[in-house]
Amino acid sequence: MLTPDTFSGQMANSADVLNHLLGHPPNASHSIAYNYLVPNLKGLHNFLNVLNDHKSASPTQTSDPLPTPPPSPKEKDEVEPAPMTSTEDPNEMPSSQPLETDNGPKQSSQIPSSSSPPPTNNAMEISIFTAATEAFSKTNTNCSIKESLERCKLIVSLAKNENVRVRGYVSVALGCPYEGPDVPPSKVAEITASLLEMGVDEVSVADTTGMGTAPRTRNLLKTLEKAGVANQDLALHFHDTYGQALVNAMVGLEHGVRTFDSSVGGLGGCPYSKGATGNVATEDLVYCLHSLGATTQVDVEKMAEIGSWISERLGRQNDSRTGKALLARLSSG
Description:
Strand content: 5-15%
Largest sheet: 6 strands, parallel
Helix content: 25-40%
Order of helices and strands: HEHEHHEHEHEHEHHH
Strand order of the largest sheet: 1-2-3-4-5-6
Radius of gyration: 19 Å
Distance between the termini: 36 Å
Shape: globular
Number of helices: 10
């Protein structure tokens, strides 16, 4: 995920990163969906300016300059796959599109050879975010929930005019660092429905603090269902602060959700939630799904190698237990 500057200088180089990705797309065996975090209209204008500059510099481009990923499949036996998504049955989860992550571009399902031709249909999408509690909203975005939704509506309207896919996030859906673990599920459902009604393509309901438990996750999903929010419009986003992320993901799987955010090596965190760790590790999630008979088209051993590599490069601990176990087994021969 690319994050433009907002209240923090750490996000200031996002336009440069986006420019590089547009001009020098990496070799990959599948198309890649790049996600650009947009906190306000200024952020969206910055995103569109980069895209338009790239389009002007590429006069021979014949494809749509703003391709979008395919929507989640909605009928049985559809041919077109979507990221970690299926409405068919729990054992059908094709993901030739990459997995969504919280802190970087989506992870592709396989490591391509250096001879793989660059894909021509890489996609760009934006993400907007709000929160399920007033305290977190004011701390994270310096405005109330109502004000944040008004901002989101303006962003979505302009993005749709430009044919840009929009992903929404509802932070602290299962626990807030300021208001505690008992976030009303009805409030989460209300905000999620509001985002979908304004035109957001998919909403990721996020346990930002990792306070969520299996019973509370199940209750939240039932509340969302009663509010008319369809599973195919939902993604689930679990941080693993208390070691419950994988359990909660399985609750979501049983409920019928088929899109899950994850991060290789368990990367991530939240600066406004003290002690919050990263998302559920991609390696752990994929290994668990494979054990249930799911088909993801993700090479979990290659993913483990990526997790080890990026953790070493960042000078941090690899938080994927599956990744470390697989690499230890492979190294022992």
